[in-house]
Write a structure and sequence with these properties.
622 residues, alpha+beta, Arc Repressor Mutant, subunit A, DNA polymerase, domain 1
Length: 622
């Protein structure tokens, strides 16, 4: 059936697998996507939304590099919100509510339109290994498929076990069977594995809800979009709604705790710290008698609703009884109950920065197999694994991102340097250079890189360059043009800012707190210049951020440059840390296990102290 030897074989068709296949194929590699069910490519297994705090920045970065997640999100969006607009631009995070069915459909169609992608439906039960190199996969039907590189993106399917109350069902997702064989083979080859847990709320019939007693949660009045391509912004949107649990709801849930797999010992593994189940929330925060629930439609036309904030693995009768006591849910009808799922993962310290395994040449891991949670985290890993698998096959240098270049760089560096024993989720607080890594400038940061490796198109690069030039011209105009007191003092007074006594540069006035682009546009010279050049909303926003946050951006750049010098102090491969007796025992152990490639990476390893770094620097002659 498979005459040729593929360049890249991608196992799994979720967010990581879809991005990996698209990236490898668009870079010219013959690619096979093998998945257990071709009808569930790009499936949103949990909430029907993309982006959010820090996650929205990741989607923008994927798009800037030439990935598909931003485009698919825009094409299937039913609502758009820019979160944290009341804070500084480093915190602004785009988020879409999506039509679940259309999201998966758009992913399937996007992949089918991508040259070099073949598809095959079957379960991969083992890898074909020769020496310490992967040469292909074998399916459950016993069919060998040969490839030069393999990307594993198994999600929650590796020995997946679903928990609903005291019942346990083998499966990787509701209605789909688990994947077996790969974990056992990898462990036999010397890999370390572990177990993690995640959960999902019940899905309910929107026709049975009383929205009149809930709080509407509309989208932005002027919705934006994720992709830097020519996708269109929404003109109509669907509202979400908010309601709350109560003391009665909590009491009803507690009645089922003795049958909860979280409390009766059935589940031993750790779940996402920042997305706890409802039973975990009322147990950990016993002093709170109410928690928010967000009622999210699953699409334009379907009546199915996702109850965000009510993730649970309690028995279905307990879920039902408690949810009926929530305001607006008195007559609720279930489509299906919530459940928890346990699955195998492999601690990501066993990978390099390219997401290639250290033990097996040509084998890459991406997504929840690495201990992460979230569509966006998975998609970004899939993109990077697909890129590097293609580059390896083409015998080209690997592609990695530094911590000051992208949230994706922070994510991967955290995973392979620090590891994780609980599902890893990205936050803005994890990025020390978040003023540089904003959602608005992802194309400036990454599109030239994506174009250089053959992924981002020429059209993307030209669009980015035009936007950059326009932004630079507008900033220069503010630096070079003066404003008279009569032209601006009324606007300054409206925001309680001191008037200017004499003419001064627009840049200096604009730098004041509370002075916005709208205030500046009321100045005749500014309005005329903007209209003459027909600047887009994105260009105006970019110029405003660059002017108002110039000092912060420059300071962060300087800090990044200083630390970047340590990235250039390389540590020889397979360095024997046991020779350095001046290192602490913990440092020797951690450094020997992780084998950092640079002093900078070594400094980020938990348990490696500044004095240990000094010892390394002395030994390396620095």
């Amino acid at each position: 059936m498979f005459q040729e030897k593929y360049d890249v074989i991608v196992v799994g068709g979720g967010h990581a697998g879809a991005e990996a296949a698209a990236a490898a194929a668009n870079m010219g590699s013959s690619t096979l996507l093998v998945t257990m069910n071709l009808q569930s490519i790009g499936q949103m297994s949990c909430n029907p939304a993309m982006g959010g705090i820090a996650k929205g920045q990741i989607v923008r970065e994927i798009d800037a590099l030439g990935g598909y997640s931003g485009i698919v999100s825009d094409l299937s969006a039913i609502q758009f919100k820019m979160l944290n607009k009341s804070k500084g631009p480093a915190m602004w995070s785009p988020r879409t509510q999506n039509d679940r069915m259309r999201f998966a459909e758009e992913w399937r169609l996007a992949l089918e339109r991508t040259p070099n992608v073949d598809f095959y439906q079957d379960m991969v039960s083992s890898l074909i290994i020769e020496g310490n190199t992967v040469t292909g996969v074998k399916t459950s039907l016993g069919i060998p498929i040969y490839g030069k590189a393999v990307v594993l993106t198994n999600g929650t399917f590796l020995n997946g076990l679903i928990h609903i109350g005291e019942r346990q069902l083998g499966g990787g997702r509701a209605g789909e069977k688990a994947s077996t064989g790969i974990t056992e083979q990898l462990v036999a080859l010397g890999f370390e594995s572990g177990r993690m847990k995640t959960g999902t709320p019940p899905r309910v019939d929107g026709r049975s809800l009383d929205y009149s007693v809930m709080i509407p949660q509309p989208g932005d009045a002027l919705p934006e979009k994720f992709s830097y391509t020519n996708t269109t912004s929404l003109t109509t949107q669907r509202d979400c709604h908010m309601t709350h649990t109560s003391s009665l709801v909590h009491d009803l849930l507690r009645e089922g705790f003795d049958r909860s797999p979280m409390f009766n010992g059935s589940i031993q593994s750790l779940g996402p710290r920042y997305c706890p189940s409802i039973e975990d929330k009322i147990n950990r925060f016993a002093d709170k008698d109410s928690h928010q629930l967000f009622v999210e439609p699953e699409g334009w036309d379907t009546v199915e609703v996702y109850v965000n904030g009510f993730s649970t693995s309690l028995p279905e009768d307990v879920q039902y009884k408690a949810l009926r006591s929530v305001k607006g849910f008195e007559n609720v009808k279930f489509f299906r109950p919530g459940y928890a799922i346990e699955y195998d993962y492999f601690p990501p310290t066993q990978l390099t920065h390219t997401l290639e395994t250290k033990l097996i040449d040509g084998l890459f891991f991406a997504g929840q197999i690495n201990g992460t949670t979230g569509y966006e985290e998975a998609a970004s890993q899939g993109l990077m694994a697909g890129i590097n698998a293609a580059l390896k096959v083409q015998e080209k240098p690997p592609f990695t991102l530094q911590r000051d270049e992208a949230y994706i760089g922070v994510l991967i560096d955290d995973l392979i340097t620090k590891g994780t024993d609980e599902p890893y989720r990205m936050f803005t607080s994890r990025a020390e250079y978040r003023t540089l890594l904003r959602q608005d400038n992802a194309d400036f940061r990454l599109t030239p890189m994506g174009h250089a490796i053959g992924l981002a198109s020429e059209e993307r690069l030209k669009a980015m360059e035009l936007k950059a030039t326009a932004s630079e011209n507008l900033v220069s105009f503010f630096k070079e043009t003066s404003v008279k007191p009569a032209e601006i003092n009324d606007q300054l007074a409206s925001v309680d800012s001191a008037p200017i006594a004499q003419s001064g540069k627009l840049f200096k006035v604009f730098s004041r707190p509370n002075v916005t682009m709208d205030h500046m546009l009321s100045v005749d010279s500014v309005g005329a210049y903007v209209r003459e050049n027909n600047f887009s909303r994105e260009v105006l926003e970019q110029a405003e951020i660059q002017i108002k946050y110039a000092g912060y951006i420059e300071k962060e750049k300087n800090n990044a440059d200083k630390l970047q010098r340590l990235e250039h102090v390389k540590i020889p491969a397979d360095f024997d840390y046991s020779l350095l007796k001046s290192l602490s025992y913990e440092a020797r152990e951690k450094l020997q296990e992780i084998q950092p490639v640079s002093i900078a990476q070594a400094s980020r390893i938990s348990g490696v102290s500044p004095s240990d770094i000094s010892v390394l620097l002395v030994f390396l002659g620095r």
